[in-house]
Specification:
single chain, mainly alpha, elongated, 17 helices, 374 residues, two-stranded antiparallel ribbon
Length: 374
């Protein structure tokens, strides 16, 4: 086991060197041996992917390397941040060598021959190296866009072209990592949560949850067994949000009320958790007799206006979401004493405010006031 960990350390150093001017001294033999080393670690990934103790030890070593300073004083070695990355470490190495202008002509020519051996040359891999390179380039572009291009202000996020592009890239990447291993999407999303600007990442997730299912690429249409079913990327996002309560709370707090209503309408599994959060937020408020309003005791408490706007938006959603929201409010009101006068229960006041707003809206539209339903 120690020998395997040492191999991993040495390859991490090799991967760091591949981005420096040191590759100027590499010849074709060095390139071939480096690729052989990378393919050995890819074999390790395939062999021990289901072996818990070995995978855990490798994952821990990679995580420690990611947190430490790189061997050349330029920070951690990008790319090998997880066990999953070992599955395409030959692709990482090849891509970095191709991008490094210091690599000599003979070594570069040999690398290109390895990547594109020509027709008639057997390839035992399920995915050719050049296909992997193209896929990795797409993934790199997706992460780059998610990291650096999320600072435009647009109230209608779901119609913002840049946000939709980022969302599509995220969904595509989730499908790809989902094909590699069952836990891949959750690990990938958690790594993005740690590395990317979180406020923008939450917006991209929301827009992604509103996108139509991705269609398979032309080369995948004839092989339906190799890709996930359409919509799997959205399902992975929902599963990840539900499994990370702090992230989901930040998701609900950071996004506009209308956008969250659309998301919870599209994905019903999120609505009870969202309603639970709104209930918790409401229970933190108390009635200020002097001001005549509901206020929080701490600065991070959700103000009355925001709570009202979020419930109001949900009550404008089509059934069954609207019905669930009204039922939840009536239940909270009953549990709180079932008061009918304002100032005693926040749930009574919310229902009164929502009904008053609905009544005024019907008056403006020239409709009959009807019953007291929202």
């Amino acid at each position: 086991m120690e020998s395997l960990l040492q191999h991993l350390d040495r390859f991490s150093e090799l991967l760091a060197v591949s981005r420096t001017a040191h590759v100027r001294t590499w010849d074709p033999v060095t390139v071939r041996r480096a690729l052989q080393w990378a393919r050995y670690l890819r074999h390790i990934h395939r062999r021990f992917g289901r072996h818990g103790p070995i995978r855990t030890a490798l994952e821990r070593r990679l995580h420690n390397q990611w947190r430490q300073e790189g061997v050349f004083g330029r920070g951690p070695v990008p790319g090998l941040a997880s066990f999953q990355a070992l599955g395409h470490c030959d692709v990482l190495l090849s891509l970095r060598l191709l991008e490094n202008q210091a690599l000599g002509d003979a070594a570069r020519h040999h690398l290109v021959q390895q990547l594109f051996p020509g027709p008639g040359v057997p390839d035992a891999d399920e995915e050719t190296l050049q296909e992997s390179l193209a896929r990795l380039a797409r993934c790199g572009s997706a992460v780059h866009m998610l990291r650096f291009n999320g600072y435009r202000k647009n109230l209608n996020l779901q119609e913002d072209s840049l946000m939709k592009t980022q969302a599509d890239l995220l969904l595509e990447r989730l499908q790809e990592v989902g094909k590699a291993e069952a836990e891949g999407p959750a690990r990938f999303l958690s790594s993005l949560w740690e590395r990317l600007p979180q406020n923008n990442f939450l917006k991209v997730i929301a827009v992604a949850l509103l996108q139509p299912p991705l269609s398979p690429r032309p080369q995948e249409e004839s092989e339906p067994s190799i890709h996930k079913t359409p919509g799997e990327g959205s399902q992975a996002l929902v599963h990840w949000l539900l499994g990370n309560s702090e992230v989901f709370a930040a998701f609900c707090r950071a996004l506009p009320a209308g956008l969250l209503t659309l998301v919870t309408s599209r994905h019903p599994a999120l609505s009870p958790v969202y309603l639970g959060l709104l209930t918790d937020w409401g229970q933190r408020l108390h009635y200020d007799l002097q001001k005549g309003i509901w206020v929080g005791t701490e600065s991070q408490d959700v103000p009355w206006e925001e709570l009202h706007n979020r419930f109001q938006s949900l009550c404008q959603a089509p059934p069954p979401l609207k019905d669930k929201v009204l039922t939840a409010l009536e239940t909270c009101k009953a549990q709180d004493g079932d008061f009918e006068v304002p100032g005693l229960s926040i749930w009574t006041d919310l229902l009164l405010a929502l009904r008053s707003g609905a009544f005024r809206k019907r008056q403006v539209l020239g409709l009959s006031p009807g019953l007291s339903s929202v």
